[in-house]
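Lab notebook, design round three. We kept the backbone fixed and only want residue identities now. Task for the bench partner: fill in a sequence for the structure below.
Input structure tokens:
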């Protein structure tokens, strides 16, 4: 389904259809988003591999700290295996924070 947004007035309308159908966001200023996936996990020793079969070479992967643990650092996606997983790594090997992630498939 498509979500139409008028960015000049910050108004969006959508028809999400049936459950599990995914979400597409269409804009006239960028790429159409075909899938959004989100979740949470926790770092162990500053790293965490998250299993997710939706990951592709084109997936935009974002990670955000939710609850600080250990010695928090900066988060980044350090690896991905298409169709299998991605790895979030902290700049601190002592980071045990809980983090949220957002996967955007263009």
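Proposed sequence:
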């Amino acid at each position: 389904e498509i979500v139409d947004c008028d960015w000049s007035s910050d108004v969006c309308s959508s028809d999400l259809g049936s459950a599990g159908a995914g979400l597409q966001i269409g804009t006239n200023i960028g790429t159409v988003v075909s899938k959004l996936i989100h979740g949470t996990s926790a770092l162990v020793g500053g790293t965490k591999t998250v299993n997710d079969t939706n990951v592709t070479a084109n997936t935009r992967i974002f990670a955000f700290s939710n609850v600080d643990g250990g010695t928090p650092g900066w988060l980044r996606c350090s690896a991905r295996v298409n169709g299998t997983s991605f790895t979030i790594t902290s700049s601190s090997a002592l980071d045990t924070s809980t983090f949220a992630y957002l996967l955007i498939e263009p």
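Keep this in mind before ordering anything: DSSP finds no helices and nine strands in the chain.
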